[in-house]
Design goal:
The protein is 34% helix and 17% strand. With 377 residues, it is of the alpha/beta class.
Length: 377
């Protein structure tokens, strides 16, 4: 099941076969306690702003994070349920490798973007959003833009490129999404989504769960990106599945194995009294409700990818994921492919250095940019 779901529309592969229930207990071996405190976006990006665009239904705001002042623009599109913050560590790395500018965007209904119609997550609408944001940022003469997307964002990147919403498109990079595998995984997606915890007692708890469940294998990336996946409930009663078992299932490495029964009962009673006062966190996006759009994101994706005239790079977490169209296309030299093993589905979070190296090499080879002075590739 894990293999089947590896390429799903989420930005994370399922943690365990059969999913991880919210009441499951995860215990690490003895050792030092790891830091799961959140990290701010400003450690990785230089600026943050909201871009306002006009739509038929009114004005929409899209949150973007930027770095760099010179070179081509890397337009980064995250996976389903994630946000632009999933690119934070990668951004810091790629900006140390090559001359470039980075624009990481919260897609419609994700992260801190605010749109009038958050229920419309069709590929066509999301692709148009990207074109409008680029137009607002750069006007009629945008700089050369390399569009890079992961999972759902990779599919939207292909749709954006194919529809020519970015006239200055320099190249296209798709990370760990292939039509055949994605379509096969859709049947199991709802089961996977139901297996995730519905709530967390804190942001730290959410970060810890994401790392220990294998959703994000890089602790640093999880500490900055999980804040874009979950949100604080305005009222604890409005959260799904709120109970006094919230946050149960994560056992600290240093936690004592045995606690006096009387003390334990006292703490449980205090928890019962305080649960409604806690800052309960839940997912920002209810991915299960986006099911009607899944087919439109991925069906026909391989053929669409191959028809894009710009130079193309496909980065995969496993070598066994090419479908028939892509296998033929690769043999014909229509795109460059690189496999980055020992990564989960969130390749750019798990191995930001490897993804940055692959992308930097690709861009320099095509003379899109140059390595920074002093950087040894």
């Amino acid at each position: 099941m894990e293999k089947q779901l590896h390429l799903n529309l989420l930005a994370s592969r399922p943690p365990l076969a059969g999913g991880l229930q919210s009441s499951s207990k995860i215990k690490m071996g003895p050792g030092r306690k790891r830091d799961f405190s959140p990290l701010p976006w400003s450690h990785y990006f230089e600026t943050m702003e909201d871009v306002e665009v006009e739509n038929e239904t009114g004005k929409d705001l899209f949150r973007i994070y930027c770095s760099g002042a010179h070179g081509p623009v890397l337009l980064l599109l995250h996976g389903g349920g994630h946000s632009a913050l999933s690119w934070a560590v990668f951004t810091a790395v790629i900006c140390s490798r090559i001359n470039c500018r980075v624009v990481a965007m919260d897609l419609r209904a994700h992260g801190d973007s605010k749109v009038k119609n958050p229920d419309d997550l069709s590929a066509d609408t999301m692709a148009k959003d990207i074109g409008k944001v680029v137009e607002m940022l750069y006007g009629e003469n945008p700089p050369p833009i390399m569009i890079i997307g992961h999972s759902m964002g990779g599919a939207i990147a292909v749709h954006t490129a194919a529809a020519n919403h970015i006239p200055s498109l320099l190249g296209l990079c798709v990370i760990d999404v292939v039509e055949g595998t994605a379509m096969d995984a859709l049947n199991s997606m709802q089961n996977f989504l139901r297996s995730r915890p519905k709530t967390f007692k804190s942001l730290e708890n959410a970060i810890e769960w994401s790392v220990k469940s294998g959703q994000i294998r890089n602790t640093e990336s999880a500490r900055v990106s999980m804040g874009g996946q979950v949100k604080k409930c305005e009222e604890s009663t409005s959260c799904p599945g709120v109970s006094n078992s919230i946050g149960e299932g994560i056992i600290e490495e240093e936690e004592e194995e045995e606690v006096e029964e009387e003390s334990n009962k006292k703490r449980m009673k205090e928890d019962d009294q305080e649960v409604k006062k806690e800052s309960i966190f839940t997912w920002r996006v209810e991915l299960s409700k986006t099911e009607k759009y899944w087919d439109g994101w991925f069906r026909g994706l391989s053929a669409l990818f191959l028809t894009c005239p710009a130079p193309k790079l496909l980065l995969l977490a496993g070598v066994d994921r090419l479908d028939k169209d892509l296998t033929i296309g690769q043999m014909q030299g229509k795109f460059q492919m690189q496999v980055l093993p020992q990564c989960g589905h969130a390749v750019h979070e798990d191995a930001p250095e490897k993804v940055a190296d692959a992308l930097a090499t690709f861009m320099v080879r095509h003379k899109f940019t140059e390595f920074k002075e002093g950087y040894l590739c």
